[in-house]
Amino acid sequence: MSFSAIRRIVSPKKAVTVAALAAGVAGVALGTAPAQAATAPSPSSAQSVAHKMIPNSAQYNAFSKIVEHESGWNVSAQNSSSGAYGLVQALPASKMSSAGSDWKTNPATQIKWGLDYMNSRYGSPVQAWNFWQANGWY
Question: What are the residues facing 90 on neighbouring strands?
């Protein structure tokens, strides 16, 4: 219903109130629409996913330390200077697409890719963490 149609039905003062209310409701509806940042998994949910994927406590702890240093468990963390992205700061970020098309937002996909990377390059998350401690990167 248009503003002019509302004006014909009710008094001008009520029409303005109704229009303002309608605009406010529309604004609230748009403001609460799911945004990427709003729908990103929380760090605790990403950690929960990692716990399920890495049952060995030593390997999980090493993986967790790397992720904490690299991204703070933020699935959408991005290094503004290098472009590294995600929990494990893949560079280029698109490398993670090999683990799944949802690599930008899914912690399980990022964790899978990170584990594969750590295992293939260092032998395990523990060995990747040892390298990180010695070098400040992995």
Answer: 85
Q: Whole-model pTM?
A: 0.70
Q: How many CB atoms lie within 10 A of CB 129?
A: 22
Each residue of 20-44: pLDDT tens digit? 444 444 444 444 333 344 456 787 8
Backbone angles phi, psi at 90, to 5 degrees: -65, 140
The dihedral through the CA atoms of 54, 58, 62, 65 has a sign that is positive
**Strand, coil or helix: 48:** helix
Q: Using an 8 Å Cβ cutoff, are 110 and 116 in contact? A: no
Could you give the CA distance from residue 36 to residue 102 in angstroms, rounded to a whole number?
12
What is the rounded distance in angstroms from the CA atom of residue 46 to the CA atom of residue 38? 15
| Sign of CA pseudo-dihedral 119, 121, 126, 132 | negative
